[in-house]
Amino acid sequence: xxxxxxxxxxxxxxxxxxxxxxxxxxxxxxxxxxxxxxxxxxxxxxxxxxxxxxxxxxxxxxxxxxxxxxxxxxxxxxxxxxxxxxxxxxxxxxxxxxxxxxxxxxxxxxxxxxxxxxxxxxxxxxxxxxxxxxxxxxxxxxxxxxxxxxxxxxxxxxxxxxxxxxxxxxxxxxxxxxxxxxxxxxxxxx
Length: 190
Prior knowledge:
The protein has helices at 4-17, 24-49, and strands spanning 58-71, 76-88, 97-108, 116-125, 132-139, 144-145, 155-166, 172-175, 181-184. It is an alpha+beta fold. A hairpin with a 5-residue loop joins β7 (155-166) and β8 (172-175). It is elongated.
């Protein structure tokens, strides 16, 4: 049997050399953060695989009808739009896309602002089967409202945009700039 004094001396020497055993909590902490680091690295690698995915959506936007009103009391122009939308966004979905946020913006210029962008319609798509949007008569959810009276006799471009919400990775924004529909707002109020 080893005397107490020599046991204490042996522990002190082991502590100075860094050979003492770690406690249960230190081991658990090391294991937890090692596992967390591995999961983070795997999530990054998994998200990186989706950046090579090439989507080929087909988009067609048409203006069916427009009604322009002058809201004198509020001091602005307001246009009510009826749209025809045919957008096949099924190719945008992959294993990492949880949902798509799809929206139509109306873009135009005024003397006060070089670029005005107004969201006139939106939808959330959670399944690839729902990603083919086809409707001949979509009334805008949000009216096209100018900050002043700059809509009348102005050129407006309709653009379909979508955000892909991933399970892991970055939120991506895409535009159908190759399928922009341009129209002229009437010169007279309804």
